[in-house]
């Protein structure tokens, strides 16, 4: 099939590349000429495992190309994939100006019937507006479908090639058939829905996963007070098939380009129809507060942060990505600076992205984990990179000035920490807290 993908962000680029890899003819379009030139030279603007190799392979095979020329890309395509960003506005609502602008440009470039497949995450009802906008700007027939994207950063290629399900939301039979054909080599599990339900499935899925994370984080906070271990609790819960074991890792809360944006957007969507989504509001609030546990734990060990040097390992919102959007590290580092601390930070690949957003004479960006930890008063692990997991707590202790380790991602096991002199705090595992003045919690009942 001949595809034009509008937008070469995470979703557009990965989808375009993967569709070319399964034999389709794909043209990826973006307004940013610098980005297109980079891609034409085989350079990838984001860090994503396997992506660079796939771009090279499919570009060389002549199935994949990059251009700023939307008109010719749309003209040559049977299916046009809309994958432009829908960032949050200050109110939390999704900003639809980019996708509407793209839809209008697509309409003006049409030279025959096209199927429009929207992959961007958009509020319920948006695809109907896209359909009307296109029909108002072209005489050619158009079939619109919402096909939400569920890929995760860091495993985007794998997720796209092996999706749990494909949701095709459309009222047009030709679009359903063509899009089922397009996805059939990826999975047998194709669900057909109406357009609005497909749009809602994306928001509801992300909101539910965010809810699981905030839920387990609150359980972790209670575990710390009652002397239970949240990792054991999560395993025990996860063995119930109705609950499932994924997204029950307690930590410093979720970040990234999707969960924070989509939870806020769903709260707004509900608000527009006079419904207060109380549960989701709490999920967001719990998530916002969870990252400050790192500060509270540091203060309980060091008394004051003023004048202290704190090492930070991990700036990306999760491992295997250089994405720092809504990364907990921002608020944690900002709070440390506000409290008079200096920061030595290291991330295997996200440092330059992070530096562009947060700079201060009191932040030193380091070239290695060791350099960041050397002679610091405490080390906080904010992203569970494999590189960090390989460094033993005993080595960490030898680098630090004071042996304080706050493990915000429960990266270390009990036996690894047991024989060190580290003062160790993790999340929801109070029995592993070592060297802290706190006593085993007294139950009040
Ligand atoms: C997410 C959704 O998983 C994906 O389906 C959607 O398309 C986009 O948003 P992504 O943001 O790439 O993907 O990462 P994900 O692996 O889902 O993690 C999101 C955040 O939740 C990260 O900050 C991660 O550290 C955190 N998380 C995840 C937890 O704190 N605990 C968990 O158990 C799982």
UniProtKB/TrEMBL annotation:
Catalytic reaction(s) noted: UDP-alpha-D-glucose + 2 NAD(+) + H2O = UDP-alpha-D-glucuronate + 2 NADH + 3 H(+)
Pathway as given in its UniProt record: Nucleotide-sugar biosynthesis; UDP-alpha-D-glucuronate biosynthesis; UDP-alpha-D-glucuronate from UDP-alpha-D-glucose: step 1/1
SMART domains: UDPG_MGDP_dh_C
Location of the UDP-glucose/GDP-mannose dehydrogenase C-terminal domain: 311-414
Organism: Paenibacillus mendelii
Domain of life: Bacteria
Family annotation (InterPro entries): 6-PGluconate_DH-like_C_sf, NAD(P)-bd_dom_sf, UDP-Glc/GDP-Man, UDP-Glc/GDP-Man_DH_C, UDP-Glc/GDP-Man_DH_C_sf, UDP-Glc/GDP-Man_DH_dimer, UDP-Glc/GDP-Man_DH_N, UDPglc_DH_bac
Keywords tagged on the record: NAD, Oxidoreductase
Family: Belongs to the UDP-glucose/GDP-mannose dehydrogenase family.
Listed name of the protein: UDP-glucose 6-dehydrogenase
Presence of keyword Thylakoid: no
Gene3D superfamilies the UniProt entry points to: Cytochrome c1, transmembrane anchor, C-terminal, NAD(P)-binding Rossmann-like Domain
UniProt GO molecular function: oxidoreductase activity
Enzyme class of the recorded protein, top EC level: oxidoreductase
EC number(s) from the headed UniProt entry: 1.1.1.22
